[in-house]
Amino acid sequence: MNKLAVLFLLCSTLLFAQNGNMPVVVIGDSLIGQEIDGVKMRLVYGHVVITQGDVKIICDKAIQNIDKNEAELIGNVVVTQDTITIRTENGFYQGNDRIAYSNVGITLEDTHIILKAKNGYYFFNEKRAFFYENVNLFDKINNLFSNKLTYFHTENKAVAVGKVAISDTSSSIFSDSLIHFRNTKISYAYNNITIKNRSNNVTIFGEYLENFPDSGYSKVIGDPFLVQIDTADDGKIDTLYLSALSLETFQDSVETYLKAIDSVKIFRQGFISKNDYTLYYKNAEKLLTYKKEDVKQQPIMWYDNSQLTGDTIFVYSKDKKLDYVDIINDGFMISKVDSFDFRYNQISGKNIKMFFNDSSLTHTNVEGNVLSIYYTFEEEKPKGLIKSSSEKAKMIFANKKISDVRLYVSAISEYHPEKLVTGKEKDFTLPLFQLHTDKPEKSFFINKYISKIQKK
């Protein structure tokens, strides 16, 4: 049997407490009290104000369940605690646990952040928010979207899960989950990561990210892969692909550079490289690979039909086009002779410098203890080879082939006729000769890039 008691009050005040909780004070223009199936209910209308300790709620109407100490909040709901302000059209408040929630759209403001979602809970005792479905957190610098997000007011920390995207003025990070600290701007991202830098057209993929914007440092591991697409002045597209076990980026007011560590593979402007350590300077258009002291294997680079090795290899570009390559210390260059199984033009020296025009190799200078083997032809018929030594040498290229070799200072040459060379090509190799057959093909980089995109 229902019992109904109706009270019409002006500026009514209701004070109650339950289970040892701090008292809840309800003020409104009018109040209706009723009991339905033994449940005590109160309806408060007009300028409703509910307070419990440091929590204050205002709304147009409240329906109070006295036994459960809960209230449904209706119309222009505003909930505050310290610097936290929560707004929604309709919501609920649980007095025993001091929890407010809404499922019709909710906005939280905390000094410098605005947090929005379709659904949201706020735990006043813990000063923690849990929002889900179409979540957006904005803090004047970063704009974060996700499926779910937990915000810790005291720590200024956000934990986002599901289709996470966070952007600032220059870059965006996409991931499955992310931890972001608002005060320090530090972020940690996990799984299916994509980082896009709009200022330099760089995209990095990986599985784990540490990002420290104020210091200009970030690190990506978990099969990281970098793609940079540039357009030269003549409209030609120049794409850099780079994979490694670890990628680190450093940025200051002058330069941005990237450090790739372990099992590094690079493709750019026709050359492919394998090495253990690479530094890439974006603004200076310079890429550097070198051999660490405790590693025997030199960096390897392939360009067209040539293989290059050396302790340190610099690759310089100008106006987004390949300009020259510097090979320092124990430089060695091998060029395959077309239509022969094992004939290689070879040259070694202390330093090798390769020059390019419109990204095509024009000539190569070699200095210091130069040794060379050069196969000769007459009207495209093989005519043996020339073995030489000197202090300096210059190789001229035409149509991607050696057209001339010039030796300088203490030059010594010996000719080996074709009849003494045929079938004995493997006897004519320089001391540093070593063929590397593990060259990654361009398709490796393209397929890896496509797979990253498809996975994302």
List the helices and strands and how they pair.
Elements: E1 3-7, E2 12-16, E3 24-28, E4 30-36, E5 39-52, E6 55-65, E7 70-81, E8 84-94, E9 99-102, E10 106-110, E11 113-117, E12 119-123, E13 128-138, E14 143-152, E15 157-167, E16 171-181, E17 187-197, E18 202-212, E19 217-221, E20 225-231, E21 237-243, E22 246-251, E23 256-268, E24 271-281, E25 286-290, E26 300-303, E27 306-309, E28 312-318, E29 321-336, E30 344-357, E31 360-378, E32 381-398, E33 401-408, E34 412-416, H1 418-421, H2 442-455
Antiparallel strand pairs: 1-4, 2-3, 3-5, 4-5, 5-6, 6-7, 7-8, 8-9, 8-10, 9-12, 10-11, 11-13, 12-13, 13-14, 14-15, 15-16, 16-17, 17-18, 18-19, 18-20, 19-22, 20-21, 21-23, 22-23, 23-24, 24-25, 24-26, 25-28, 26-27, 27-29, 28-29, 29-30, 30-31, 31-32, 32-33, 32-34
What would your notes on this structure say?
With 456 residues, this protein is mainly beta. The protein is 4% helix and 66% strand. The chain has two helices and 34 strands. The protein has a 34-stranded antiparallel sheet that branches. Strand 7 and strand 8 form a beta hairpin. It starts with a strand and ends with a helix. Residues 1-20 have low confidence and may be disordered.
Assembly classification = single chain
Radius of gyration: 35 Å
Average pLDDT number: 89
Distance between the termini: 60 Å
Let me know the number of strands: 34
Structural class: mainly beta
**How would a crystallographer describe the biggest sheet?**
34 strands, antiparallel
- Helix content class: under 10%
Please tell me what the overall shape is. rod-shaped
- How many alpha or pi helices? 2
Strand proportion: over 45%
Residue stretches low in confidence (pLDDT < 50, at least 5 long) are 1-20
